[in-house]
């Protein structure tokens, strides 16, 4: 029994989050809580996020694909398929322990325990999609930078996480820089502003829920991704059906074009790696770290998007403002 468990553990090829092992790892900096695995998770998240935005941009703009929701559905289906194959071949485990010999992937009780994660993910998705409609891009970017404040507050409420004065000061500087960057376009819209702040709140709750459930469910990052996909997939499928997105997808003229299929496949693979790195980064580090990494990766996203797709009216003043925002 022990030898089979050992061999199964040796086949786990990707790092998984195990909160019980965090204290045994070497810290990167004196007084810091980030370990080498935590830094790896943060860099991996930012790299995957930047690349995913570029491939999604190619599918939605270069090929004029009509529905972002369907791309999200494809990504979720592929993610669950990857996890199913890897788990079936015993290349990964869904539990945070060393042994996972159960014939079931996860129990019904575990699915119920992780259901708040799926609920907060759906609320986060709906609020984020709606928040883009009522606010112009400069103010949307400005208001979204306040997410880190909401994240710190929600994480304190849910898990009692406290931060040093230097961290709080840095966060306040980010928020101040965001308002400086957006001060040239202050167009007040009560509904638009409220939806963006609602999106910030749901984002903070989603990330804090990942951190909390990741420590209480007995699941690692793969297990959390599996439960999230199994619970959210049917809901997203129903949503795209009633909105008519599936019908538009069937009528899409480039649906079977080789170039579009390659872009869609790479997008799905990157979405799998991105979701994995989000869960890993949030559980190894914190929800606030994840939020700040999200702010930092935007600089690379905009720079590469300008290089590959153009259409951004960059000038020296805009670049200075954006760097100060970060």
From TrEMBL:
The chain crosses the membrane at residues 38-55, 67-86, 106-127, 139-159, 166-184, 190-210, 222-242, 254-278, 299-323. Its main location: membrane. It holds the Pfam family TPT. Keywords: Membrane, Sugar transport, Transmembrane, Transmembrane helix, Transport. InterPro entries: Sugar_P_trans_dom, TPT_transporter. Residues 48-310 form the Sugar phosphate transporter domain. The keyword Cytoplasm does not apply. Signal peptide: none annotated. It is found in: Membrane. It comes from the Eukaryota. The keyword Membrane applies. GO terms for cellular component: membrane. It is a multi-pass membrane protein. Residues 1-28 are annotated as: Disordered. This is Nucleotide/sugar transporter family protein. It comes from Artemisia annua (Sweet wormwood). The lineage of its organism: Eukaryota, Viridiplantae, Streptophyta, Embryophyta, Tracheophyta.
């Amino acid at each position: 029994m022990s030898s089979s468990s050992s061999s199964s553990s040796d086949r786990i090829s990707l790092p998984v989050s195990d909160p019980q092992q965090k204290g045994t790892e070497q810290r990167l900096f004196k007084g810091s809580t980030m370990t080498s695995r935590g830094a790896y998770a943060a860099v991996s998240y930012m790299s995957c996020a930047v690349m995913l935005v570029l491939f999604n941009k190619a599918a939605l703009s270069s090929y004029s694909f009509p529905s972002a929701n369907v791309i999200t559905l494809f990504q979720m289906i592929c993610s669950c398929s990857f996890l199913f194959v890897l788990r079936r071949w015993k290349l990964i485990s869904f539990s945070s322990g060393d042994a996972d010999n159960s014939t079931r992937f996860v129990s019904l009780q575990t699915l119920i325990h992780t259901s708040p994660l799926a609920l907060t993910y759906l609320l986060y998705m709906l609020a984020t999609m709606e928040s883009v409609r009522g606010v112009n891009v400069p103010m949307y970017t400005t208001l979204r930078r306040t997410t880190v404040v909401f994240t710190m507050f929600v994480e304190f409420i849910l898990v009692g996480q406290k931060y040093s004065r230097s961290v709080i000061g840095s966060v306040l500087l980010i928020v101040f820089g965001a308002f400086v960057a957006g001060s040239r376009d202050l167009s007040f819209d009560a509904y638009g502003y409220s939806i963006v702040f609602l999106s910030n709140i749901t984002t903070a709750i989603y990330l804090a829920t990942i951190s909390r459930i990741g420590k209480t469910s007995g699941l690692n990052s793969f297990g959390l991704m599996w439960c999230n996909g199994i619970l959210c997939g049917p809901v997203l499928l129903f949503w795209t059906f009633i909105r008519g997105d599936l019908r538009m997808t069937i009528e899409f003229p480039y649906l079977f074009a080789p170039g579009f299929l390659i872009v869609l496949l790479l997008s799905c693979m990157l979405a799998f790696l991105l979701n994995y790195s989000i869960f890993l980064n949030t559980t190894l580090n914190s929800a606030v770290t994840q939020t700040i990494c999200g702010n930092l990766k935007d600089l690379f996203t905009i720079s590469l998007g300008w290089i590959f797709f153009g259409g951004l009216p960059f000038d020296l003043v805009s670049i200075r403002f954006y760097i100060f925002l970060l």
